[in-house]
Design brief:
By secondary structure, this protein is an alpha+beta fold. The protein has six helices and eight strands. Helix 1 packs antiparallel against helix 5 and helix 4 packs across helix 6.
């Protein structure tokens, strides 16, 4: 049983770049400061959308319906954490749920502010299956209504969050983009500043993606060597290398989630 789990864990490392970066074809799944990796990334995310409707019943049976805007149901998904760090990853996700605070949720081109309110964990040997539900506070996928102040604030806050999540490995890349965007303020919807900001974000996305790709390649190599040796890791050196690469990949994925939301926000304001 442990051998099978070790093989699955190695396969998870090999699949990391594909599963983590390609979800929704536009970005990873990020909840607050937690970036889902490997088989943690869900195959699907449930997003119930309906229109809030007030029904007025008139004499004679006629009805008048007033549409009051979208009324989102809970966003929910599930996945599994595998390997020696499964329990630590589960604890990190639990901390997000325990905080009881609003958190940014992004995947693909979607972006929401949510409150994670239910987390179910089913633990086994080096594996933790999870299921999570989030109540929607606000849909951030569309550009915020308002003026230049709202757009500028949203973009600069997301860039600051990306810089914080990116850590030292991405500080130079994201720091340069942050400076460029700050120099464009105020960023008026429909102005040339929006296109310039979007170009800076796109450049940062490309560099962050390249760093993530390099880290994923390193992980895949370590996973392949471990699989060939029939052990969780091929050597102590590989373990250290893979640990560093996994940390860099996690930082790149987390930062990339915020960059994806910035790109969607700016693109809607071109």
């Amino acid at each position: 049983m442990s051998g099978m789990l070790a093989t699955l864990s190695g396969a998870a490392s090999v699949a990391s770049a594909l599963e983590t970066l390609a979800f929704g074809a536009a970005g990873p799944v990020v909840l607050g400061g937690f970036a889902f990796q490997d088989f943690e990334v869900p195959a699907t995310i449930t997003l119930p959308v309906k229109q809030a409707v007030a029904v007025h019943k008139l004499i004679g049976g006629e009805r008048v319906l007033d549409a009051m805007g979208p009324d989102y149901g809970d966003i929910a998904w599930a996945g599994v954490m595998l390997g020696a760090f499964a329990e630590a990853r589960a604890q990190a996700l639990k901390a997000v749920a325990d905080a009881g605070q609003a958190a940014a949720l992004t995947w693909g081109t979607w972006a929401f502010t949510v409150l994670p309110y239910q987390l179910t964990l089913k633990e086994g040997f080096q594996q933790v299956a999870y299921a999570i539900k989030c109540s929607v506070i606000r849909d951030d996928s569309a550009a915020p209504a308002g003026g230049a102040t709202d757009l500028t604030t949203s973009v600069t806050q997301d860039m600051a969050a990306a810089l914080m999540q990116g850590g030292a490995a991405l500080s130079a890349t994201l720091g340069g983009a942050q400076s460029a965007i700050q120099g464009l303020a105020p960023i008026l919807p429909g102005s040339a500043g929006v296109a310039s900001a979007l170009a800076s974000v796109a450049g940062a996305q490309g560099l962050v993606g390249a760093i993530a790709g390099t880290s994923a390649t390193v992980l895949a190599g370590a996973g392949a060597r471990a699989a060939a040796a029939g052990t969780p890791v091929a050597s102590i050196s590989d373990l250290a290398t893979a640990t560093t690469a996994a940390g860099t990949l996690a930082q790149a994925v987390s930062a990339g989630g915020y960059l994806g939301r910035m790109a969607a926000n700016l693109g809607a304001n071109l």
